[in-house]
Amino acid sequence: MAKTSSVATAGIALGQRILTIRAQRVMIDADLADLYGVSTRALNQAVKRNAARFPDDFMFRLTRTEKEQLVGTVSHLARIKFSPVLPFAFTEHGAIQAANVLNSTQAIAMGVHVVRAFVKARQLAVSHKDLALKLAAFEKRLMHATVQLHEHDEAIENLVLAIRELTAEPAKTPRRIGFSEWKDGDPRRSAREKDQKEKDRSG
């Protein structure tokens, strides 16, 4: 039995329905079926009848571990938690092909929105990667500038120390207090000896 689904409402949730599994952007069969207005079983039956049109790079079945991780982290897929069937994941090309094999009015109309959602997700991924590269380059430049600044600070500090040494006043020789022995030839010693001789003569 076909399900009715609002194209506008489904379009709002498209970004949340595109997931990354095995390094690929995919959409789970339950979500794709909901968007195309059919049951998950009807979608998978149509895919099975046209298996040749769905190679491995168009779709793949999740493992039990992948399913458990999926329902544990994606709240809107909790409804498939107790399903005994392992879900299929459709890549962008697989989602388009699914709309073609269903060949319903809603599937064809929603197929356009699905393609646009995948394109937007791809553009966001590219912009995020570009941003990450720019941040890495900026961090590298910042680290280099920090090292240069540290070396520059050391050079300035060494220059200041050198200037201080050149401009420092020479150390003063302390003045001796008390008796000091005069050396030969000192005028003060000659005058003293002369005075002493005159005293001896007068005595």
Dominant shape: rod-shaped
> Mean of residue pLDDT?
75
Let me know the number of strands: 4
Class computed from helices, strands and strand pairing: alpha+beta
Oligomer state equals: single chain
Low-confidence stretches: 4-12
| Strand percent estimate | 5-15%
Number of helices: 8
Major β-sheet strand ordering: 1-2-4-3
Order of helices and strands: HHEEHHEHEHHH
What is the terminal-to-terminal distance?
A: 154 Å
Largest sheet: 4 strands, antiparallel
The Rg value, from CA coordinates, equals 46 Å
In short:
With about 200 residues, the protein is of the alpha+beta class.
Tell me what you see in this structure:
With 203 residues, the chain is α+β, with helices and mostly antiparallel strands. The protein has a domain at 7-124. The protein contains eight helices and four strands. Helix 3 (29-36) crosses helix 4 (40-49). Residues 4-12 have low confidence and may be disordered.
Draw up the topology in text.
Blueprint (H helix, E strand, L loop, with lengths): L6 H6 L1 H4 E4 L2 E5 H8 L3 H10 L9 E3 L2 H10 L14 E3 L1 H11 L2 H63 L19 H16 L1
Antiparallel strand pairs: 1-2, 2-4, 3-4
Question: Features of this protein?
Answer:
63% helix, 8 helices, alpha+beta, 4-stranded antiparallel β-sheet, 203 residues, 7% strand
